[in-house]
Write a structure and sequence with these properties.
The chain has about 325 residues and is α+β, with helices and mostly antiparallel strands. Helix 1 crosses helix 9. The chain contains 9 helices and 17 strands. Helices cover about 30% and strands about 30% of the residues.
C-alpha cells in the first residue's frame, strides 16, 4: 500500500499524542510506503490532482528529528496513491478550503480520508445539531443578550465556544455571578459580529470528555480526557489527563445513529466527543486519541484503523 499524508510540517507534530504519527508508524511497520506533503504542495493539471511529495521514513522516537527522515521530493498524481489522508490541522481557513477543492479531483482515483466534501460541509461544532436528541440544549447566535437569556433558561451555567474554534481555544464556562460573564459573552460574539455556539453546561464534564474513535462508523478505541485542576477543558494539549474508559450503551446508541450519516458524507476517520451521555462535537479534520487509547487499552488502535482503510481501498479499487 502507498499512503500520502497531507499534514502540517513534520517538525511541528506533537508526537506523544499525534494520530497521524501513530498511523505512519503502523504503516511503516507493515512495510507500506509512507509519503508526506503540506497543503501548499497540492495542485492540479487539467482535471487531475497532483502533489510534490516526499518519501518519508518513520521511526519510533520522541522528537520529529529522530522520528522522520525524508527523501527527494517527487511530482506525482494523487491517483498514484492507494490512500490519501487529509490530516492538516485546523483552522479551516481559505487555504484549507482551496485544498479540499483540489482533493475533489482525486475522488474515484484514490481513497480519500476524509472526503473533502464532508470536510467543507460539516462544521465540527454545528454538525451535532443534526442529532438534537443526542445533544445538550444548544443555541447559535451573535447576540450576547440571547446568550444571557439562554444561560438563565439552562439554570445559570453554559459553555460558549466559537463556531470555527478548534483544540479547545475560545471555550468558556459562564456561570451566574461571574463578574466576567458579560465581558466573556461580548468577546465571544465579537460585540455582535461572530456567531457563537452555547450549550447547557454538563457537570459531568469535570469527570471527563470521552473521545470515541470511529473507523468507517465502527468504534476502534476510546479515551477519557479528564480536565486538570481549575480547568474546564479536557483537551490533552491544555493539560487534560488521558484515562482508560469503556464504550457504554449510550455511546453505542450515539454511534449507531451517526454511522450511516458519516458514511454518506464520506467521513471515515472520526472522533466523537461525549460528555455525560451527550454528543458535543464531531471531529473530522484531524481527530486525535489513537495513541492514548492504544497505550491505555494495550490494543493496536492504529492497526484497526489501517485495516479499515485497506479494506475500503481494496473495495474502491475493485469497482
Amino acid at each position: 500500500m502507498k499512503l500520502l499524508f497531507v499534514v502540517d510540517p513534520l517538525e511541528r507534530l506533537g508526537l506523544a499524542g499525534d494520530t497521524s504519527y501513530a498511523l505512519m508508524l503502523e504503516a511503516a511497520a507493515r512495510g507500506w510506503d509512507v509519503w508526506t506533503c503540506n497543503i501548499e504542495h497540492l495542485g492540479l493539471v487539467d482535471n487531475d490532482a497532483v502533489v510534490d511529495a516526499v518519501p518519508t521514513t518513520v521511526r519510533d522516537a520522541e522528537t520529529p528529528a529522530g522520528a522522520f527522515s525524508v527523501g527527494e521530493r517527487a511530482y506525482m498524481r494523487l491517483g498514484d496513491f492507494d490512500i490519501v489522508l487529509m490530516r492538516k490541522d485546523p483552522p479551516l481557513d481559505v487555504n484549507y478550503l482551496h485544498a479540499t477543492w483540489i482533493l475533489d479531483h482525486a475522488r474515484g482515483k484514490t481513497l480519500l480520508v476524509n472526503d473533502p466534501r464532508g470536510l467543507r460541509d460539516l462544521n465540527e461544532h454545528l454538525a451535532v445539531l443534526q442529532f438534537p436528541a443526542l445533544t445538550p440544549p444548544t443555541i447559535v447566535t451573535r447576540s450576547a443578550d440571547k446568550l444571557r437569556a439562554f444561560q438563565a433558561a439552562q439554570g445559570g451555567a453554559i459553555v460558549v465556544k466559537p463556531v470555527d474554534g478548534y483544540g479547545g481555544l475560545g471555550i468558556f464556562v459562564v456561570r451566574d455571578g461571574d463578574p466576567n460573564a458579560s465581558s466573556i459573552l461580548e468577546t465571544s460574539t465579537g460585540a455582535g459580529t461572530r456567531w457563537t455556539l452555547a450549550q447547557k453546561f454538563l457537570p459531568e464534564a469535570s469527570q471527563g470528555d470521552k473521545r470515541i474513535i470511529l473507523a468507517d462508523g465502527e468504534a476502534v478505541g476510546a479515551v477519557l480526557r479528564v480536565p486538570a485542576s481549575a480547568e474546564a477543558r479536557g483537551n490533552l494539549h491544555v493539560g487534560g489527563r488521558p484515562v482508560k474508559t469503556t464504550i457504554d450503551a449510550r455511546d453505542r446508541e450515539i454511534i449507531d445513529a451517526l454511522a450511516p450519516w458519516l458514511r454518506a458524507h464520506g467521513q471515515i476517520l472520526v472522533g466523537l466527543d461525549v460528555i455525560g451521555g451527550y454528543l458535543t462535537e464531531i471531529n473530522i479534520t484531524s481527530p486525535t486519541g489513537v495513541r492514548h487509547a492504544a497505550r491505555l487499552d494495550g490494543v493496536n488502535v492504529a492497526g484497526r484503523v489501517l485495516d479499515c482503510f485497506a479494506r475500503l481501498a481494496a473495495t474502491a479499487a475493485a469497482k
